[in-house]
# Entry
Amino acid sequence: MLVDEYIYGVARIRALESTLLTDEDVKSLVEAKDYDSALQMLKDKGWGSNTPNESLNDIIEIEKNKTREVIDDIIKDKDDKKILIVEDEYHNLKTAIKKVYTDASVANKYVYVALDPNGVKDENDEHIKVIENITIKELEDIITNSEYEKLPEHMIHTARKASETLIKSGDGQLCDIIIDKQLLRMFRNIGRESTNSLIKDYTNIKVGMADIKIAIRSARAGKDSDFAFKAMIPCEYVNVNELERAVNDGYEAVIDYLKDIGHEDLALAAEKSISYFECVCDNKIIERIKSQKYETFTIGPVLAYSLARYNEIKTVKIILSCKENGFDEDFIKERARIMYA
# Structure
């Protein structure tokens, strides 16, 4: 983006930031007496399309689409946008492989990374893109026919390896690990190649948090470091070799290691519950990007707003889903993220 485009984009983002949910808004949602009351609070805040009988899923999709439209309108360069869509693209790769090679229905749905300007008609709409300029049908044909060379270069080897692994072993978890590891590698590479401080910070903490989550989950499940090694990516945020050794020594060793390297908050959160631990990880990322509120001449504020929107959409979905399923207030509070606003 050119400097003039940054200025225009940031000016628009500053106006949009005033519509973001605050921590007080989230507190009100958590304390709402029931699901319907919480849903009405969202509608009063302008969420959804103000049409009757909108479900939570309808509203979530509408808000995601609003965010994508802002991103597409402000950020024209696909390289600048990559950090915001690469996770969805790898999710779509995973979805396509499982849809093609397993008999079971795929729980995960495709996430659209580019939409028909006139609105989504159905999954066969040629304007819906799920990986760069690849449609759902094209992606499934690529996987079915093993034409992996038609995928973006960074996906070719991963798609082939994940597909062959699923075909030979039927192990969906191992297929996920292969794809998730390449996604982390992409985040790390995007950060290393960028000159933008936000992108460097965000990708570094994103990969580091993922490595720590893998170590925690592996140790809790009694898995050895070989399993963790298959999933983790070396990064500047944490020493994965030391993490792997801690995994071998057991869950308490991982907790002690986190405390020793200055991540006592993560250690305490993990001891409380995995859900709370993941919440604290997300909160660390939001705290890290808040400095972009005071930037003007870079793409940082646009990216920060986008990440903030996805964070609040995720939080709203968690809170409302908990309300809908009758979980109590304390249970929901443990999962409510802090807001950028």
Summary: The chain has a mean pLDDT of 91.
